[in-house]
Amino acid sequence: MSRLSRLDRRVFERVAAAHPPAVQAVLPRLSHAADHGRLWLATAAALAVTGDRTARRAAGRGIVALGLASVTTNTVIKYIARRRRPLIDTVPLARRLARQPHTSSFPSGHSASAAAFATGVALESRRHGALVAPVAAAVAFSRIYVGVHYPGDVVAGTLLGVGAALATGRVWPRRPPATRLVHHAVPAPALPEGEGLVVVVNGGAGTEDATATAQRLRTLLPKAEIVERGAEGEEEGDLVALLTEAAGRATALGICGGDGSVNAAAGVSADHGLPLAVFPGGTLNHFALDNGVHRFEDTAAAVAGGTAVSVDLARIRPAGGAEGPTRHFLNTFSIGLYPELVRARESLQRHSPIGRLGKWPSAAVSLARVLRTAEPVQVELNGRPHKLWLLFAGNGLYSPEGFAPSHRTQLDDGLLDVRTVAADKPFARTRVTLSVLTGTLAASRVYSAARLPRLRLAGLHDACSLAYDGEAGDAPATLLLDKRPGALTVYRPAGLDDNLIPGPRAT
After folding, report:
1. Residues 344-390: pLDDT tens digits?
2. Domain 3-171 has CATH 1.20.144.10
3. Where are the alpha helices (DSSP H) in 387-427?
4. Burial of 128: CB neighbours in 10 Å, binned 0-12, 13-18, 19+
5. Which H, E and C letters describe 330-353, residue by residue?
């Protein structure tokens, strides 16, 4: 018997002989509650129903980590290790489980699941992780206490669980902390209590009642003018007209809504030379989050203090003498399959249990579904013909590589983040799906990425669709994507990060 095995048995026997106060009635029940992950599923549900975005992400990452740890431990390592369970002769009857497990003792599956869930939660939220960690530690110790695992089994399971949680970053990237964001400060008027600010509340965005939202804004900024837009019976043009009218009497323009509403307000603000105040009132609020703004209070503080940053505005323009409107996008542009992918992913996130696991897993499943019936797009990119499944262009560099872009750390880099998946490679659909599922899309030969100041698209067929910032439409035969560098001044409170760089935008 090796020295480690002897030490393992000695510690097990000491725990069996110990009688710590007030735990004999708790630890066996806690150990049983964690069977099949029930305890962690219930905890994840409790976090999800709080309505807090961070808590939901923490719950989702915890469940993904738990699933990965459980598969690795119970179907792979236990099958290989085949270690016998401890003899429980020395364990008091009162603390033994009603049904003894018969699988391999090494490693502890309960410990792996507990550590994976707790670490996954902590990766998204230290506060919630601190609440879950003591319970996870108690579950792990309980497996020794009830006599079904040696201490070494528990230690190995815990390490596997932590590793599984860290591995989720490969397929579901974490949003960076505020200290990683890089913004360039620009002058903006300070508007105490919102004086001179006109905010348009788009009643068609988000889930909160528009009247209640408007009242929240009036409480935060009592001197601001709040304009409510009805939720039904109005088209995008009505919103632009309302914003344009508001801009004519405003010192600064505000918008409360989702990314489509913010897109409309951004174009009006840039055309009128007004700073923009974004109040995150939509479902996803991608731009607000990339700007470091999570709450109405963040924007209100920035408006009152007059702190703002520079933001690029990307354009979609007809090219080659074609006629048509110039459109803008703050976040993303795409043609062909990508609009279908986005719609499928968002539907999955709203209506399916898979969607509760997060954006990246939802994107992977949606991609596999959409690719089954998709037709590739023939297009010329800067004069060179391509046959593509997907084309994506971001207003600034998105992280990570792949087709579930998560975040941007800079909003005024002057470049487009262009990504494509080729359709003329052997087994392209299968290869890209496997790459997305394994988090290795950036290394796939069917995938390419480039950062460009402009991109010309030609040869698009009539049935080709485009999408930008959540809006969809028909694509013209020829179009040009480029940028208006630093065209927007957007309010953002000081103190959110250490990388708020004074002065003009770096070029």
Report:
1. 776 776 666 655 555 656 766 776 777 677 778 888 999 899 988 88
2. yes
3. none
4. buried
5. CCEEEEEHHHHHHHHHHHHHHHCC
Supply the pTM of this predicted model. Answer: 0.69
Is the pLDDT at 97 greater than 80, yes or no? Answer: no
Cβ partners under 8 Å of residue 13, min gap 6: 90
User: How many other CB atoms sit within 10 Å of the CB of residue 4?
Assistant: 9
Q: Is 292 left (phi over 0), alpha (psi -120 to 50) or beta?
A: left
Q: Distance between CA 312 and CA 330 in Å, rounded?
A: 8
Sorted by where each begins, the domain ranges of the chain are 3-171, 189-305, 318-486
DSSP string, 36-57: GGHHHHHHHHHHHTT--HHHHH
Indicate the pairing of strand 332-336 with strand 377-381: unpaired
Using the 8-state DSSP alphabet, how is residue 399 labeled?
A: B
Going by pLDDT thresholds of 50, 70 and 90, the confidence category of residue 423 is: confident
**pLDDT beyond 70 at 237:** no
Residue 149: Cβ-neighbour burial (10 angstroms; 0-12, 13-18, 19+) = buried
Return the SS3 of 75: helix
Q: What's domain 318-486's architecture?
A: Sandwich (2.60)
Residue type, 272: H
Asked if 417 contacts 432 with a C-beta cutoff of 8 angstroms, the reply is: no
Mean pLDDT of the chain: 83
State how far the Cα of 374 lies from the Cα of 100, in Å rounded to an integer: 51
Under CATH, to which class is 189-305 assigned? alpha beta
Whole-angstrom Cα distance, residue 358 to residue 352?
11
